[in-house]
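Backbone-to-sequence.
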């Protein structure tokens, strides 16, 4: 992940050197190319983590079957999700670059000053280390928890699952703790939000919340509720 940000940074800096100061879009990295690169690199890792999660899920409910890789949800996660993720990731980076450049241009900054300003966005600050870790951890957690849930679903033994947060969870995750949903139904659909009594809101604007993570760095889990026999 860090390599991705370094590569995008290098391309942006190179483009900035050659920039005729007309269109900010000329400075942004090639988004089409980056979308495939990021998605392809990610797909392999996410597939492995998905299977790892499925193994954990199988152990929890004492089944030994492997995850059926032909099921639509499994295929979607391996084949389509990496592209949706790459789109979102690169789109966010491109927006931050645009915003930084616009601000610098308003202040009549030189190319050198614009470069310095660009280095403050999370993707490029500290060589992208912190941000890369955030993304990697959150996406690993998503892949593992997704594999686990898909296994529970496939087994036919699990009726529902319950949200469980860690002791040091944020207020949003603490509010989710104990929430239960059918194994086939998301906790929240994309576009819905979680509203706290104090007025704070967490909008789910990325994907359906089929399970954790609810937000970046989220370390919540869900527990299976097995069917009554
Ligand atoms: Zn959480």
């Amino acid at each position: 992940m860090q390599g991705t940000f370094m590569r995008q940074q290098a391309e942006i800096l190179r483009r900035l050197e050659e920039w005729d100061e007309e269109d900010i879009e000329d400075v942004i990295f090639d988004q089409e190319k980056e979308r495939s690169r990021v998605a392809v690199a990610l797909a392999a890792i996410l597939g492995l983590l998905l299977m790892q999660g499925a193994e954990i899920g199988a152990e929890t409910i004492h089944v030994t079957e492997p995850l059926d890789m032909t099921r639509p949800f499994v295929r979607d996660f391996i084949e389509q999700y990496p592209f949706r993720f790459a789109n979102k990731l690169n789109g966010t980076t491109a927006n931050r670059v645009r915003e930084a450049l616009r601000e610098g241009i308003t202040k009549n900054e030189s190319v050198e000053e614009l470069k310095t300003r660009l280095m403050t966005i999370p993707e490029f600050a500290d060589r992208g280390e912190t941000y890369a870790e955030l993304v990697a951890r959150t996406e690993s957690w998503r892949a593992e928890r997704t594999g686990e849930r898909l296994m529970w679903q496939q087994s036919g033994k699990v009726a529902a699952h319950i949200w469980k947060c860690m002791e040091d969870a944020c207020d949003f995750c603490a509010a989710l703790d104990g929430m239960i949903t059918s194994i086939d139904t998301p906790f929240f659909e994309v576009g819905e939000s979680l509203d706290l009594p104090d007025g704070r809101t967490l909008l789910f604007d990325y994907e359906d919340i089929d399970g954790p993570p609810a937000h970046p760095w989220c370390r919540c889990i869900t527990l299976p509720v097995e069917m009554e026999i």
